[in-house]
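TODO from last week: model L-asparaginase.
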Amino acid sequence: MQVTNGVAIVTHGGSGSPVEWSDGCRHAAALAREQARSGASALEAAVAAVVALEDDGRYNAGSGAILRLDGKTLEMDAAVMDSRGLLGAVACLQGCKNPVLVAQAVTRTPHVLLAGEGAGRFARVLGFEASAGPSRAALDYHAQLMRAFADPEQADPDDREGASKADVYKRFWNFPTPWDEVVKAHGSGTVGAVVRSADGQFAVATSTGGSAPTLLGRVGDTPIAGCGYYVGEHGAIAATGVGEYIVRQMLARTVHDWLGQGLPLQQALDRGIALFDRSVSVGLIGVTRDAAASSSNRNMAAHVLT
């Protein structure tokens, strides 16, 4: 979509999210526009959109974050960046309702990324609202995952020896709860917003509950600058999908660099998606000085507002 002036916002609910969930993305974009029109910065508007997506409960972020393999642990990542030089991220954050607000707070520290227990303590020191724990949907999804995960016929495509997914994760199990107890008890996504403000600033905000199955402490692309998100002089880009693949391509920075070479936004996003095999879920959103767009190789809840 072409943008000639004023505010432009794109939001997404994660690669693979039902398009019917685009109503939440539309609501988040509208909140961001209200913020921008009331004098907020591009970054503040992007954060407002992602807070709305975290609170929605349907998306894999914030209140809707999925559980790790032990069925108990929630680990969340988030990041923000803008064209004024602000950058902040958190990884493996536990116990916080809105990780994107904690990432925004990191921009006010001497650091750009806080992780694990330190990120959690940082959030508590600043008084951010605690998480209410896993949602009913997260619990149901985990039970379903464990039933499928325990199937010995499901080989892990990334394991060179052709072992089942269960065997692969049992080999590297690092949760406090023993593997056997987890299996007996039971038998992937991101949200994001990119903003162009009326004064020409660019910003991005992203948040995720991670993917499943993963080991404790897994970090994907979402909090890594240049991979899950990037802002530069040509625009703002946010990615969603399988982080281990997105990181290898440094996807957000790669797409931004294509913009600098003169490639139109929609073509740059589509070219970024084409870097991946169709079996790898991936999506992109972006804004530039004159365009706002999204692209994905899966269904993806999203909304473009100009």
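Done. The chain is about 35% helix and 20% strand.
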